[in-house]
Structure formats: structure tokens, C-alpha cells
Design goal:
By secondary structure, the chain is mostly beta strands. The chain is built from two helices and 13 strands, in the order E-E-E-E-H-E-E-E-E-E-E-E-E-E-H. The two termini are 29 Å apart.
């Protein structure tokens, strides 16, 4: 496994080594000791699956607020997505910066997104499925989000989404002066 740093402090692309022979392919996609050695969450008490049927589907930008922020390890198990982490940690050297990676089921790569970052993705083809490992259990009252196209973030999406839900389309614009705002 290789842990490649991104433009967001603490966010990593995780690449795996695939071993192929006449039977097919094998790859280790997670190892708690390797993650801990890199200072990343080694325990994931919740896992989620997300499926999107059409190219151009956008989900995000979501996060879970304090006191239960969550680290996420996200991978595509079908298709390809443009996956984004947005740093909302006021004390971070990469505050308000984003990092993006193409997650591809054929490459078996993953994206580690640290707590305090919002996460979203845009499907690059039809019939995409993502698998999430979460370091915290879901707490509905701590669910938060920011607008995917907020000019304060300047996320460079590869194209305009064609499908998204109303919640994601209408999150308030970010206000850096809002004292009650916390990731």
C-alpha cells in the first residue's frame, strides 16, 4: 500500500498493489497497522455503500460536525468518480483548500478524508458504486454540508452535474465570519 499526500493536509490517496495471475487478481485494500503507522484512523465502526445510476450525479459536500467528526476511507467498487475533500478545519494549513482524485474500481484506489473535511463526488460514468469506511457512527443531528459550487472554495469540477438532490443544491454559501459555524 502506498499513501500519497494530497493538497489537503491529512488527506491521502491510497494505492494498492494488485497481484494478478491466471486466477484473477488479489489486492490488500486495508491494513490497520499500516494506517496507524501513517497517523490515519485504523478503526472503522461503520461502513456505507452509495450507488448512483447516471453519469453526472453529484453527492456532497457533506461532513459530520463535532463532537463526532468522522474520517472517511472511500473507494469505488464499480465505475469511476471525481472525488473531492474540502478542508473546513480553521486551524489547518490547508483551510478552505480542496483535493480531488479520480476513484476507479479498476485501479482499486481509495481516498482517505480526515475529520473536519467535507466530502463529495461527481460520477464520471453510469452505474457507479462507492464503499465508505467511517471512523464514527452516523449521528443525524450532526450532519452538515456546504454548497458544491460555492465560490469561496473554487472546486474545479470536471463538468456541471446533471443530477443532485435539493439539499445538496441549496446548502447555504459559506460565511467565514459565522461564529457558530464549526466543522
Amino acid at each position: 500500500m502506498r499513501f500519497l499526500p494530497t493538497a489537503v493536509s491529512g488527506a491521502f490517496v491510497v494505492e494498492v498493489d494488485a497481484y494478478c495471475d491466471e486466477r484473477g487478481m488479489f489486492a490488500r485494500t486495508f491494513d490497520a497497522r499500516s494506517f496507524a503507522d501513517h497517523g490515519l484512523a485504523p478503526v472503522y465502526p461503520q461502513c456505507n455503500v452509495s450507488q448512483s445510476h447516471k453519469r453526472g450525479t453529484l453527492r456532497g459536500m457533506h461532513y459530520q460536525a463535532h463532537p463526532r467528526p468522522e474520517n472517511k476511507l472511500v473507494r469505488a467498487t464499480r465505475g469511476r468518480v471525481f472525488d473531492v475533500a474540502l478542508d473546513l478545519r480553521r486551524d489547518s494549513p490547508t483551510y478552505l483548500k480542496s483535493a480531488a482524485v479520480e476513484l476507479d474500481a479498476e485501479k482499486h484506489n481509495a481516498f482517505y478524508i480526515p475529520a473536519g473535511c467535507a466530502h463529495g463526488f461527481l460520477t464520471l460514468e453510469d452505474d457507479c458504486r462507492l464503499f465508505y469506511q467511517m471512523s464514527e457512527v452516523y449521528v443525524p443531528e450532526l450532519t452538515r454540508g456546504v454548497r458544491w459550487n460555492d465560490p469561496a472554495f473554487s472546486i474545479q469540477w470536471p463538468f456541471e452535474p446533471v443530477i443532485m438532490n435539493d439539499r445538496d443544491a441549496t446548502y447555504d454559501l459559506y460565511d467565514s465570519g459565522e461564529k457558530s459555524w464549526t466543522p
